[in-house]
Amino acid sequence: MIRIENITPRKNIVKYQTHIPIETPNEVVVPEVTDKIISDSTYKIGKESLLIVKDVEQSEVTLNSETSSKITIKSLSSVIVRSDIGQIDEEWDELLLEKGACVQFQFVEGNWYILSSDGLKMS
């Protein structure tokens, strides 16, 4: 026979939070936001994991292998994407993303590669 004592009832709590604070003694650390919306005519990627480009006629975005190794770019405007080093898919110096396109890039051994794309590629 198993005897169970002092069992407190469980509560199921559902809580949605975009950034979960990490609690340490006497301090709460909030993780860095890595999503960004821009309306700049030129932009160099920082530490973003998602970049949304909108409200600009055309934007030139430069991938930055020094600060990021993976980035998803969603274009709600015309966007030219350039590599900071090497070529994109070992073939293109730049890509033209038309309005509505979404492309995920990964930097691997000196080149940027397209992992996922629903946009147009033009050299």
Give the helices and strands, then pairings.
Blueprint: E1 22-24, E2 27-29, E3 35-38, E4 42-44, E5 50-53, E6 58-62, E7 70-75, E8 78-82, E9 94-97, E10 102-108, E11 111-117
Parallel strand pairs: 3-5, 4-6, 5-7, 6-8
Antiparallel strand pairs: 1-2, 7-10, 8-9, 10-11
Sum up the structure in keywords:
123 residues; mainly beta; five-stranded mixed β-sheet; 11 strands; 41% strand
Explained architecture:
- This protein has strands at residues 22-24, 27-29, 35-38, 42-44, 50-53, 58-62, 70-75, 78-82, 94-97, 102-108, 111-117.
- With 123 residues, the chain is mainly beta.
- It has a domain at 33-117.
- The protein has a five-stranded mixed sheet with strand order 3-5-7-10-11, with no helix packed on it. It has a four-stranded mixed sheet with strand order 4-6-8-9, with no helix packed on it.
- A hairpin with a 2-residue loop joins strand 10 (102-108) and strand 11 (111-117).
- The radius of gyration is 21 Å and the shape is globular.
Secondary-structure element string: EEEEEEEEEEE
The order of strands across the largest sheet is: 3-5-7-10-11
Note the overall shape: globular
Q: Which segments are poorly predicted (pLDDT under 50) over 5 or more consecutive residues?
A: 10-17
Tell me the total number of β-strands: 11
Hey, roughly how much beta strand do the residues contain? 35-45%
How much helix, percentage-wise, in residues?
Answer: under 10%
The main β sheet shows up as: 5 strands, mixed
* Number of helices, counting only DSSP H or I runs of 4 residues or more: 0
Mean pLDDT: 81
| Structural class by SSE content | mainly beta
Distance between the termini: 75 Å
Cα radius of gyration in angstroms: 21 Å
